[in-house]
Give the backbone structure.
Amino acid sequence: MAARTALVTGGNRGIGFEVCRGLLGHGLDVILTARDPDEGRDAAKRLGHARSALRTETIDVSSAESVAACADRLREAGVHVDVLVNNAGIYPPGTVLETDPAVADETFRTNFWGAFWLCQRFVPAMKRRRYGRVVNVSSSSGSFEDGLPGPAVYSIAKAALNALTLKLAGELSSFDDIKINSACPGWVRTRMGGRGAPRSVEEGADTIVWLATLPAGGPTGGFFRDRKRIPW
């Protein structure tokens, strides 16, 4: 049986880069995507895997046209995406009343709509093949249980991403081997999280990789941190 193929957005650095490393370690072929093609190629060189197992693609997830173009290129190349990790995101500061509408629009396009568009492009083929894993990289900032802490638009967009997870999992509940879940990596030492964050990128990536490689009997429609279900 051929190796499964995973597409990871924002795979050129931070948590996304570590997720790519982890999935390669599990024997998956990986499509490392980045908004900047040079950064994507540099990241692939740092991973150092055989070209047959690692491919780079350019995606600006804030653009529906860029998402569609990538999907078209992969289809024309005969590449099937079995695992989709929606990791790319931005973290703008500000309250509801302070945030510039243009910043709010960019945040939603990057943190929510990109994942929505990618699911629309790649999940139908998962249905046809009756296998798929989608991991939406969310945050405790998107948790209603925790009171949506953090910058306003970031928190609201992550809450919307969780809603996408729950809704899509419900729509696919009759497919036993398609799993749709959200992951909270925690506060991680990345360019976004800062040097003072308490968690390593390995710790942040672990639950994402776990969800991306779930067995057929694994959970779907959940929100997880450290491989444990947490409240929405």
